[in-house]
Amino acid sequence: MKDWLTSSWRERFIPERMRTVDDHIFSDPNGLSLIKESEAVLDKVISHILKHGPPRGSQVYRKNGRTFKMRLKVSQKHLKLLTFDTHQSPSAIKKRFVLHYVRSEHSKAQQKMIKDGFVYYMKNGKSHVRSVVKSPYFHGMIQKLQHIDGALDGHAPTSLIQMQDQPDHEETISKEAKSEQDQYAGSLNYVSMLEHELPAPLQNRLRQLLERLYPLKQQLRHLSVEDRYQVKRMLQQDIPNLLEAYQQLDEEEQSEQMEKVYEALTQMEITVSRLQENEDDMKSERFDYLIRLNERRYNEKKDR
């Protein structure tokens, strides 16, 4: 209780933009996805720099997703990251965050490498600005900016940040992942129940689609935010709505429309198959990156 009172008293004297953002702004599935997707893009930037070498002069890396957009500007002295939700994002609170990192060779001994780190958002009709520098949800992202800094010099250094709050952050993500998996499993069970009320051809087609969807339960957190949203929408809305609408038709209409429903389920299965192939490709790229990273690290030490 004493710590809470002390913290509240101090907050009154801290400017709004310097107060650390509340956890709930990023602890929901959409907020966590925005963080995870941003970190994934930074991983690709690290891999690109290690493979092709540092850019000459300034370079801008962009990611234009359906639900979020991201821009990273890399220069000799600074790294500037901008990420924001698009209007198509399912997040109830649309966010825009900025991180301004001063590269290690240009930072003075007493200067912090994170020059600025803020999130901007609207809540209850009011605009807010909060600091993200000390937020546990941004420790990983700041660490990756340090890795980019190192990659520009030919190596990826270990993090300079002592992430004392990381276990709590991982526990939060674990709870969110478990909740998401439980919802996904419930949707799978519901769709499976609809199978028994369908004619044999549609039963077989739906069963094959579900066989594609079942393994994704354990892989949801590894999918991109766009792919995860598409899979969840397919399972929670598109399939149930299609089959329930079909079942409400009379026998003659069901006979006439069965081929169209069959084709729709086939297209869904093809879509899921492509998502799984993309996920496998990303795993391979990640593995290749780790191999190159370790070769650079330990070959350097061997040559010394």
What features would you describe in this structure?
With 304 residues, this protein is an alpha+beta fold. The chain folds into 2 domains: 15-164, no CATH class; 177-283, no CATH class. It has 8 helices and 6 strands, in the order αααββββββααααα. The chain has helices spanning 2-11, 24-27, 29-52, 139-152, 166-195, 200-213, 225-247, 251-303, and strands spanning 59-64, 68-74, 78-85, 95-102, 114-123, 126-131. A 6-stranded antiparallel beta sheet has the order 1-2-3-4-5-6, covered by helices on one side. Strand 2 (68-74) and strand 3 (78-85) form a beta hairpin. Helix 5 runs parallel beside helix 7 (225-247) and helix 7 (225-247) packs antiparallel against helix 8. The longest helix has 53 residues, at 251-303. The radius of gyration is 24 Å and the shape is elongated.
Properties at a glance:
304 residues; alpha+beta; six-stranded antiparallel sheet; 57% helix
